[in-house]
Amino acid sequence: xxxxxxxxxxxxxxxxxxxxxxxxxxxxxxxxxxxxxxxxxxxxxxxxxxxxxxxxxxxxxxxxxxxxxxxxxxxxxxxxxxxxxxxxxxxxxxxxxxxxxxxxxxxxxxxxxxxxxxxxxxxxxxxxxxxxxxxxxxxxxxxxxxxxxxxxxxxxxxxxxxxxxxxxxxxxxxxxxxxxxxxxxxxxxxxxxxxxxxxxxxxxxxxxxxxxxxxxxxxxxxxxxxxxxxxxxxxxxxxxxxxxxxxxxxxxxxxxxxxxxxxxxxxxxxxxxxxxxxxxxxxxxxxxxxxxxxxxxxxxxxxxxxxxxxxxxxxxxxxxxxxxxxxxxxxxxxxxxxxxxxxxxxxxxxxxxxxxxxxxxxxxxxxxxxxxxxxxxxxxxxxxxxxxxxxxxxxxxxxxxxxxxxxxxxxxxxxxxxxxxxxxxxxxxxxxxxx
Length: 435
Ligand code: ADP
Ligand code: MG
Fold this sequence. Notes:
Blueprint: E1 4-5, E2 11-12, E3 45-46, E4 61-62, H1 75-79, H2 82-88, H3 99-108, H4 123-126, H5 128-138, H6 162-171, E5 172-181, H7 194-209, E6 217-221, H8 227-235, H9 248-252, E7 263-267, E8 272-276, E9 282-289, H10 293-313, E10 320-321, E11 325-326, E12 338-345, H11 347-350, H12 353-362, E13 365-368, E14 381-386, H13 394-416, H14 421-433
Antiparallel strand pairs: 1-2, 3-4, 5-9, 5-12, 6-7, 7-8, 8-9, 10-11, 12-14, 13-14
Helix pairs in contact: 6-13, 7-10, 12-14
The structure holds adenosine-5'-diphosphate and magnesium ion.
Adenosine-5'-diphosphate is lined by residues 174-176, 178, 237, 283, 287, 339, 341-343, 368, 370-373, 383.
């Protein structure tokens, strides 16, 4: 409704002159349907009743290869041809995960970059003709058919010079390193049932209880947390975001029966954290204020080793293979499964977001907004991390992040000193080869 000044200066409402309100767009849920399907377009998926459906979510079946639009950005949409679709469409893993399940999030959420998910460890075997090219596209050409993924969790192998440390301390608000860890024999969140998710949570709780010393802490189930505590943990960057229809989780079905069987473990000073049943069974995280990447990496390595030993002590093995390393829900998170990020203030690059993306791309880095993937960069704060996860060891990726972010800082300083965007663009090739 609107109001307008009358000639006499008093406010009066002139209803007759208001344009009719636009018809309210009804959400999918309001139309009596379950989430899982794109609200604005029908890409051909039909809810035929999948045994994994929940009250609020329907898995879709595609009878034919979806017709991808120019909105579809994902590697999945670029890889899945009608021929490949026909070849894989009737395949199913032993936990009942299908090709339609695997591609649903990328079909119905067109802006995603990867666009497909695994519902269990076996998905990577059954759907490898789709997933291996996606892995190669995301991870700079990694060939899962022939390569062996390396591991190096020795912090002393990382080189972090005093000069780099000083720059990081000036620009970086906080550092965080996380990785995905999943338990063999159980479906991943996109293919789970309430029972399997609860069993995973039970095993993880036992695993967390086995962590000792600096890593000793407590598990807090999401369902048992007050909304205030949940918000506060989220605002401090400790806890996962609530699932939204724009991120990978929702349309993959990985947010079903939320918040059941989800939770967070943390040690006393919240430098070692583990998430339970968000996108993966477990995300291990080490984080602290400031830019001491080497210290955060050392804690990460300790947490990774302790978590593996404790899980094995609790009778659980982790999903892992020589070619794929640690295995997880999203093909972007295999190998090390590690994302080492700094929350960094970049006021000049923030005025040229296309350049920031170009710069990050040149150094194999990924920029995200300040509240996680697909969020805005509030106050020019960006979360900048390594992009690849596989084909490089943990040490190599931490090193790539340190060296790449050092270059990002160098460019930020050049812009602050008056350099033009064009001059930065021209120097990118030389800067990249100097690494
Ligand atoms: P991931 O998938 O690696 O867990 P998300 O993009 O989903 O990352 O973000 C998870 C949360 O972690 C968000 O709240 C994000 O702001 C926070 N976060 C990421 N990197 C940092 C960092 N270096 N310092 C503090 N918080 C961070
Ligand atoms: Mg995430």
